[in-house]
Amino acid sequence: MLEDYFVRPQTVERIRSSWIGSAIEQYVARLEEQGYATQRLGQRVPILVRFGEFAQTQGAHCYAELPIYLDSFVEFWVKRAGYRQGVTRPRRSPADAVTRRIEAMLRVVVAGFAGHTRRRVSDEPFADRAPGFFTYLRQERGLRENTLGWYRNHLRQFHAYLTPRGIIAWPGLSPDIVSGFLTDRAEGLQPSYQRIRGTVLRMFLRYLHREGVISGDLSSTVEAARVYRLAKVPRAITVDEVKQMLGGVDRQTVIGRRDYAILLLLVTYGLRAREVAALTLDNLDWRHDRLRIPERQAGHSTAYPLSPLVGEAIIEYLKDGRPKTTSRHVFLHVTYPRGPITHVAVAPRAAHYLHKAGIAVTRAGSHTLRHTCVQRLVDAGWPWKQIGDYVGHGDPRSTEIYSQVALDRLREVACGHGEEIV
User: Under a CB-based contact definition with an 8 Å cutoff, are residues 211 and 126 in contact?
Assistant: First the structure.
């Protein structure tokens, strides 16, 4: 296992020769299960080896005795390393950082060890003053965890707004305070984001009133931000820019072969990032040259003809790039533990190559290539219904916004008859 994280054989040998070598390997296995990146391990393991050496010289004979020597080692290590305070105050002191890393291992190998740096702080804002709100959202409203993340984010900001103003009890809440929060924290926010914030705040205030925490229903004081559905032109790039972006991918590397196949899927089929991440080997029908995309929005599924260019890119990655694994997912992380990539990783890779090619686009990412695919279909004269089916729109109104990319055609419609009349 250690060979997957450390290149030099002498480094692996030194770790295993340590009297706490097995404890370190056990801890590394735990980090592997949690999906820690190689860089994080490179920072943690060496200091654990030094801690084991220090404890042994001080008289430690078993793992249970290791906590006794923790404080003295931290003091020794910080002085030895010569840490100095910089201009910017660090988020965490060096001693605290070292202590946390060692205590994380001790929790794994020493039975009953808790340590004193672990803080159990609820990630649910207002957990002390509205303890049942998130339970209400889960059980009564049936909201999913990703939606609850929006609630946590906006309510944390509401909490941060109330605290410096000394509002620690709900009777101090007023329409002016609510309005002030929405106004003061609106600068730089997109209208759609402001609209979500208003929805979250209304739901929260309505809940407080229902539970009798506040006497009046303040949700009516939260006005909805105006969002015009067809106000924005989708961000897309030209065919030449697509070629420029693809030309910047280094296909001699493993990550380049993987990313090249991902980019082609995005721009050829207009797939979403999560649809690319969810692709499995079972979705590739090589015998019939078909690519199946199941479980799209609104329960739709789509079967595409497998483009020779896309097929060749995927084969190149599968043969000379994809790690050997039992996972059926097509695209995997390059670094250990090499699990399936998630949609969170797809968008940054697209943005990376767009920036690398010097292509200026607002909010570069995987959706830029999805919009580019749709614009190509619009330019080819496809009916809107067929375009919506091709890219997996659950609502026909989602396709209407792309009517704005057909500017030349709209201009001909608007000006053609007028010129004839003149």
Answer: no
Where is 292: in which H helix or E strand?
strand 290-293
Give the pLDDT confidence of 285-310 residue by residue, as tens digits: 999 999 998 766 655 678 899 999 99
Residue 109 and residue 111: Cα distance in Å, rounded? 6
- pLDDT at residue 89, rounded to an integer: 43
Work out the angle at residue 325's Cα, subtended by the Cα atoms of residues 321 and 331, and round it to the nearest 5 degrees: 50
Q: What is the DSSP string of 407-419?
A: HHHHHHHHHHHHH
Decide: 221 and 182 in contact? Cβ < 8 Å: no
Q: Whole-prediction pTM value? A: 0.53
Cα(30)–Cα(65) distance, rounded to whole angstroms? Answer: 21
Degrees, nearest 5: CA angle 34-35-37: 130
